[in-house]
Amino acid sequence: MRRGRREKVENNNFKKLMFLSGGVLVAIIATFIITFVIYNNKLKDSSYSSLTTEKIADLVPNTNDYINETNSYIEEASADIGKSIEEAINSVENQDNETTKTEDKAKTENTTTNTTKSTNNEKTKETNAKPEKVKDPEFSVPVEGENIRGFAKDSLIYSDTLEEWVTHLGIDIKAERTSVVKAAEEGKILSIKNDPRYGLTIVIEHVNGYKTVYSNLLTTEFVTEGETVKKGQSIGTVGNSASFEIVDTPHLHFEIIKDGENVDPNIYLK
Question: Which tens digit of pLDDT belongs to each residue from 166-178?
Answer without folding.
Answer: 999 999 999 999 9
